[in-house]
Specification:
269 residues; Rossmann fold; eight-stranded mixed β-sheet; 33% helix; disordered C terminus
């Protein structure tokens, strides 16, 4: 195990002194979360404007609902990129929340190396206000996480990194780490780490009852598969039923079969 000196660790920004907390940032330094309780718990008064923010928890418990107000504000200035999301974003729902759907980019690289390369390029480009990432391998090492954070700082981009809750104890260079889990009709939030301020705050936000009432995690949702429709058997007597079918569609009574036979006989004579 390498023996790092304290000054070296401070220079590499792997830790900072607790007694040297920065004064509370100005309101302009953070992006309003849309929730007063969460703004009060965050040292910057809201979400950071750039750098990595880790959201640790299961998929489908309201994590995107928590970010909707900030994403709505970010989509006004620059586009937003979704990299390898576990489910396809539903654009009508985004539009209903006021998010510009024509300013959304969906990227799905296959391998982990391609995902990391694409994430760095997108974060560093400066073309996107926010980049949301889900990697196929959640347990990234320190070097990979640090490269993503630095790329987001260079591109003035907000990196939203979704990771499993099991990695909450892993050391990460992300200045802000938040753990989420569903608690009945509320979303439970715990601030695991935030730069320049104390961590450990816990709060609950009531989720909309119409969407998240007693909702379970997406991993327990039923999976529907499309099956081809069965072929209908060919009816030999279909031709004789066409006249009756047309009569019912047009709401006109069909002539009895006896009258049709007698009519045809009269015309024949």
């Amino acid at each position: 195990m390498k023996n790092h000196s304290l000054s070296q660790l401070l220079d590499e920004r792997k830790l900072w002194r607790g007694q040297q907390l920065r004064p509370r940032m100005a309101v302009s330094d953070g992006c309003c979360t849309g929730f007063k309780a969460l703004d009060a718990a965050l040292h910057s008064g809201g979400w950071p404007q750039s750098g990595s923010t880790e959201l640790l928890g299961e998929h489908g418990i309201g994590e995107l609902w928590l970010l909707i107000p900030a994403l709505r504000e970010h989509s006004v200035t620059r586009p937003i990129c979704w990299l390898n999301p576990p489910y396809l974003p539903y654009t009508p729902a985004l539009a209903q929340q006021g998010i510009a759907v024509d300013r959304q980019l969906l990227v799905r690289p296959n391998s982990l190396n391609d995902q990391l390369w694409a994430a760095e390029e997108l974060l560093r480009s400066g073309a996107y206000a926010a980049v949301l990432t889900w990697f196929t391998q959640a347990n990234l090492n320190d070097r990979q996480l640090r490269r993503l954070h630095i790329a987001a700082l260079e591109g003035q981009c907000w990196h939203l990194h979704f990771r499993p809750a099991a990695l909450a104890r892993q050391i990460s260079p992300a200045p802000l780490r938040i753990q989420l889990h569903a608690d009945q009709q509320a979303l439970h939030i715990q601030i695991m780490k935030q730069q320049g301020g104390h961590a450990g705050q816990q709060l609950q936000l009531a989720r909309p009852a119409a969407l998240y009432l007693q909702q379970s995690a997406a991993s327990s949702w039923p999976v529907y598969t499309s099956t081809p429709a069965p072929k209908l058997p060919i009816q030999r007597q279909l031709k004789g039923k066409i006249s009756l079918l047309n009569a019912s569609i047009l709401n006109t009574p069909a002539r009895p079969a006896k009258q049709l036979d007698s009519g045809s006989k009269e015309q024949a004579h």
